[in-house]
TrEMBL record:
Organism domain of life: Eukaryota
Residues of the full protein shown: 103 to 302 of 309
Domain EngB-type G: 22-200
GO molecular function, one term: GTP binding
Similarity comment text for this entry: Belongs to the TRAFAC class TrmE-Era-EngA-EngB-Septin-like GTPase superfamily. EngB GTPase family.
Name of this protein: EngB-type G domain-containing protein
Keywords: GTP-binding, Magnesium, Metal-binding, Nucleotide-binding
Cofactor needs: Mg(2+)
Amino acid sequence: AQIKQVEFVKSSARARDCPKDNRPEFAILGRSNVGKSSLINALVRKKEFALTSKKPGKTQLINHFLVNKSWYIVDLPGYGFANASQSARTDWSSFTKGYFLNRDTLVAVLLLVDASIPPQQIDVDCANWLGRNNIGMTFVFTKCDKIKGGKGKRSDDNIKHFQDLISKYYKEPPPWIMTSSVTGLGRDELLLHMSQLRNY
Ligand code: GTP
Ligand code: MG
């Protein structure tokens, strides 16, 4: 399940510009600033592989990264970017929804949810949209390192609350993994999970 080699392939502005070689892929989706690019860097063990930023909205295109010359990780623009213009937001939803609905090689969406804050309605809405459209999904809770010491229970509470909000929309709740890009928590579990979904 380990990553031996990874290369950036291309950035695409539209679903129809994405690579056409039929390799399986996983899309990294989540609110702006949730830690998508950081998670990719942690997975591939390279500090500045996918661009990260304190400023939300850094990732604006569909970015394909080829792993072990056999499957893709796809970094997507974050949603809920408060400072985006209305037209930029409309672009986001049309091109990203187009990608999800038309990308036959998509194995699963990794929906990133910030475990250090209470559940956000936009994440619940996103999970429900994916569920309604029968798109396979795994919840990846991020920033699990942020809650330490005496407040150690809070991320668990946030995660439980989020799962409760989602549960009425799913007969079988989607799998979930707790991660931190800072400590590396969940990295191996997530890689194993993805290899099981790919069947190799
Ligand atoms: P956009 O590309 O703007 O959608 O953001 P993104 O989801 O790619 O987030 P990014 O990886 O750029 O991270 C946003 C901020 O959160 C950065 O300041 C990161 O250092 C921080 N961050 C990301 N992951 C973690 C984590 O696991 N723990 C902690 N403590 N901070 C994190
Ligand atoms: Mg990013």
